Amino acid sequence: WRFYPFLLAASGQMAWQICTVDLSSRAECNRKFVSNKWFGALVYSGILFGKLAS
């Protein structure tokens, strides 16, 4: 259960991406794609924290 806050943050970040992307703009799509590193970092941090805390 300790990784749920990180998963919640990652879900919020993904929802932000989906709600704010302008699919007609290549530059905007690229910025959202590049920001996926933060999604991955949040998921990874949650897994790592969950393992270390158990």
From TrEMBL:
InterPro entries recorded: Prenyltransferase
Record organism: Thalictrum thalictroides
Record keywords, A-Z: Transferase
Any GO BP annotation: ubiquinone biosynthetic process
MF terms in GO: transferase activity, transferring alkyl or aryl (other than methyl) groups
UniProt GO cellular component terms: mitochondrial inner membrane
Gene3D superfamilies tied to this protein: UbiA prenyltransferase
Alphabetical list of PANTHER family matching this protein: 4-HYDROXYBENZOATE POLYPRENYLTRANSFERASE, MITOCHONDRIAL, PRENYLTRANSFERASES
Name of the protein described by the UniProt record: 4-hydroxybenzoate polyprenyltransferase protein
Family: Belongs to the UbiA prenyltransferase family.
Protein origin, superkingdom: Eukaryota
